[in-house]
Design brief:
The complex is a heterodimer of chains A (186) and B (158). Chain A is built from 9 helices and no strands. The longest helix of chain A is centred in the middle third of the chain and has 31 residues. The model of chain A has no long low-confidence stretch (mean pLDDT 95). By secondary structure, chain B is mainly alpha-helical. Helix content of chain B is 84%, strand content 0%. The radius of gyration of chain B is 18 Å and the shape is elongated. Chain B starts with a helix and ends with a helix. The relative contact order of chain B is 0.14. Classes of the chains: A mainly alpha (186), B mainly alpha (158).
């Protein structure tokens, strides 16, 4: 049911002239794809710097609240660019990505990373006053930062794996995998 | 010509064979390459945005650049190790790829720039260097590392 819905939505996107000209344009597609990947240095780079502070491994001589407040701005700008370029890339190649196991895993990892970020910020805002200048934050914060690093790394790995066709619908594979990838839809 | 012999040797070496044979390992190396690129980029941007007075205006720029440099070095080492593995699998192909050589030239420029110009300058008291020099160093640094990454991405497209 959900696979049918996703596929018909993707086919509708893919049938639009703008989508087809995007995927057909060598330079436009590659520039958007490159922007998506290179912005990792802004978004993930800033996130790394923040999480390393929250683990107590780096910038221990800078108050944690100051570091995260300063680096949040470029991080969110990077995130915005990644979301916009990501949506455009999906729009240009909707059917293929909808039937990609890696894209599906990436969306799940992204959701998990988002939930972790929300919980992390709640815990951070509630406790920051008591340890802001401590070189090593409390355990709860360190665990959240470690989870953040792990989940965002997973998002990147899944994104990279999207280039591999090991589980494409054209590959003979079990019914379960076909269902998980969204193949065999009537 | 001698370089081509080296690239042919690299591709037929154990490392090259491993990179060719194990698609999953190769994909992990690519992912690690991207993650360490992000670490390197984050360290570079944090330092350079401080030098440009965009961020951390009330924190001494030396504190920011010294902290970030540790992670820059780690990012660089992991980028290079994962990059060598990636090249080994497609060595002869990248030998004929002009963006690969553009990337190597930019990378060499970046490494020389960091260890011969930027770090020696930033290891000193930043107050002794004219602000316009620090800002120029920051702009050059962003430009060179952006070039490395952009040429790297384009290897796959050309």
């Amino acid at each position: 049911m959900i696979n049918e819905l996703l596929l018909s939505f993707a086919e509708w996107l893919g049938s639009q002239p703008a989508s087809q000209s995007l995927i057909g344009s060598f330079y436009m597609w590659n520039w958007i794809e490159s922007t998506h990947v290179l912005t990792l240095m802004v978004f993930l780079g800033m996130l790394f710097m923040i999480d390393l502070r929250m683990l107590g491994w780096s910038f221990t001589d800078v108050p944690a609240s100051k570091l995260s407040a300063q680096l949040n701005i470029p991080m969110l700008i990077g995130f915005g660019i990644m979301v916009i370029t990501g949506l455009v890339l999906f729009y240009a190649n909707a059917v293929h990505e909808t039937q990609s196991i890696w894209f599906r895993f990436k969306m799940i990892a992204l959701l998990a990373a988002g939930i972790n970020a929300w919980l992390f910020h709640r815990a951070l805002n509630a406790s920051i006053g008591t340890w802001d200048r401590d070189p090593v934050p409390p355990k709860r914060i360190r665990v959240g930062a470690g989870m953040s690093l792990g989940l965002w790394a997973l998002v990147v790995v899944m994104g990279r794996l999207m280039a591999y066709d090991w589980f494409d619908c054209t590959t003979p594979q079990s019914d379960f995998i076909n269902w998980a990838v969204g193949c065999n839809v009537q | 010509m001698e370089l081509l012999v080296f690239f042919e040797w690299l591709e037929s070496s154990l490392l090259g064979q491993a990179a060719k044979s194990y698609g999953g390992v190769y994909a992990m190396a690519q992912s690690i390459h991207l993650l360490s690129m992000a670490l390197l980029g984050g360290a570079v941007l944090t330092t350079d945005l401080r030098l440009l007075n965009v961020l951390f205006r009330d924190t001494p720029s030396k504190v920011v650049s010294d902290n970030a440099h540790t992670w820059f070095k780690l990012g660089l080492i992991v980028v290079i190790i994962s990059g060598i593995f990636m090249v080994a699998g497609v060595a002869v192909k990248v030998y004929y790829n002009s963006f690969y050589w553009a990337k190597m030239a930019a990378l060499l420029t970046g490494i020389l720039f960091v260890f011969a110009v930027k770090r020696p300058l930033l290891r000193q008291d930043h107050g002794q260097t004219a602000p316009w020099i620090l800002k120029s160093v920051a702009c050059a640094s962003i430009l060179v590392w952006f070039t490395v990454a952009a040429c790297g991405r384009w290897i796959g497209f050309s």
